[in-house]
């Protein structure tokens, strides 16, 4: 069965990005603290063409996060480049070879031709979340579809009852302000199905039952 | 070493009580959903003089929660009875034999003589959180002191750097509104030291390092 999954880091007080997000600081103030556990792992470094890093439970989680994913969905803010009609010189945050190595469907209100980079094609979808999911499902074949982020995109799919599995990386930092992850998502029935703790972060996978 | 500890249930979106708390509904709307995992355990039932219940990982967590605790701290709202000068006919929510079986120190702005019930003496402290902690430490002997709640009391001790250990029972419900647990607590350095997952709830113990 093809699943729609999502894995996202969240602070202990519920934020998935810090306050005052901007083009220069897309994770917001303090937002990088949510990702330090991942950046130090061997898996993350390997995915980004780097040697070294720690080979621990967190590294396994990072490695898993890209396995069995045949296509990605993401919001426009995560793809970046600012609001309004596209500046087509913007080709994402990730350089010539984005780490996805799978088709990515970007939710936007502004049409744009597909963008082909090494290993990843970005398709820009203006017909809403269900259309984007349908296109991603077709592109993924028998693999799963993952939501790359950000918070608003996750919220929309969770609220619409379309998300099957949510993995939270619960990071023991308190940001105090920023972008809340779990707002306007209704009252889904969630069941923890796997918990993995490390000294840096607690990984909990929830199955969305309805 | 004598520790100041706290264990508290929190929703996935960060609330430790639902909205519209009142004397009739002290946990707020939906707030009982944060405690269902505990109420069904054999340990909770035994602590309240009842037979039966489930003997599972959650039951062990509930049993642990009262072990090695020599005294409790709690806020006035948790003791109950409304705001302002005391109505001394109010003797707490728990009947003739409260489940603490240890001295309890209640933070309040209104003086009241100690209240002795079967197994538990409530002492009302008007001199602030440090005085209450000092009295509780003395009463606890070589055992730990635990904060019983509620959120505002936990926040004050955490913000003051006085809390040593915080155990969160992360319950997979989304309340959407209510009393946030981790606000106005500054930026403490927390390290997960134990994680126990069950199908109902994820128990994470954090050591407060500073």
What general form of chain A does the structure show? Answer: globular
The low-confidence parts of chain A are: none
Tally of separate helices of chain A: 6
What is the beta-strand fraction of chain A? 25-35%
Please estimate the helix content of chain A: 10-25%
Order of helices and strands of chain A: EEHHHEHEEEHEHEEEE
Q: What structural class should be given to the helix and strand makeup of chain A?
A: alpha/beta
Biggest interface, CB < 8 A: A-B, 32 and 32 residues
**What is the quaternary state of this protein?**
homodimer
Q: Indicate the mean pLDDT of chain A.
A: 96
* Alpha carbon gyration radius of chain A: 16 Å
Number of strands of chain A: 11
Q: How far from one another are the termini of chain A?
A: 16 Å
Q: Can you list the strand order of the major beta sheet of chain A?
A: 5-6-4-3-7-1-8-11-10
**Major sheet of chain A:** 9 strands, mixed
How would you explain this protein's 3D organization?
- The structure is a homodimer of 210-residue chains.
- Chain A has 210 residues and is α/β, with parallel strands linked by helices.
- Helices cover 20% and strands 29% of the residues of chain A.
- Chain A is built from six helices and eleven strands.
- Chain A has helices at 36-39, 42-47, 57-64, 76-79, 129-140, 151-159, and strands at residues 4-11, 15-17, 69-75, 104-107, 115-117, 120-125, 144-149, 165-171, 179-180, 190-197, 202-208.
- A nine-stranded mixed sheet of chain A has the order 5-6-4-3-7-1-8-11-10.
- The two termini of chain A are 16 Å apart.
- The mean pLDDT of chain A is 96.
- The A-B interface holds A 12-14, 168, 170, 172-174, 176, 180-183, 185-188, 190-202, 204, 206 and B 12-14, 168, 170, 172-174, 176, 180-183, 185-188, 190-202, 204, 206.
């Amino acid at each position: 069965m093809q699943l729609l999954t999502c894995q996202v880091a969240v602070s202990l007080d519920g934020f998935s990005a810090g306050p005052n997000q901007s083009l220069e600081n897309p994770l917001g103030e303090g937002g990088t603290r949510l990702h330090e556990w991942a950046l130090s792992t061997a898996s993350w470094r390997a995915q980004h063409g780097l040697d070294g890093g720690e080979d621990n439970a967190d590294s396994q989680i990072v490695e898993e996060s890209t396995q069995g994913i045949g296509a990605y969905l993401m919001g426009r803010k995560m793809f970046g480049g600012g609001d309004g009609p596209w500046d087509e010189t913007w080709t994402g945050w990730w350089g010539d070879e984005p780490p996805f190595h799978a088709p990515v469907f970007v939710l936007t209100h502004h049409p744009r031709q597909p963008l082909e980079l090494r290993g990843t094609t970005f398709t820009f979808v203006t017909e809403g979340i269900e259309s984007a999911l349908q296109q991603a499902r077709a592109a993924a074949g028998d693999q799963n579809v993952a939501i790359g982020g950000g918070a608003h995109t996750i919220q929309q799919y969770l609220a619409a009852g379309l998300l099957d599995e949510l993995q939270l990386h619960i990071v023991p930092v308190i940001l105090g302000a920023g972008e809340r992850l779990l707002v306007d998502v209704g009252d889904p029935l969630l069941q923890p199905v796997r918990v993995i703790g490390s000294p840096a972060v607690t990984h909990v996978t929830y199955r969305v039952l309805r």
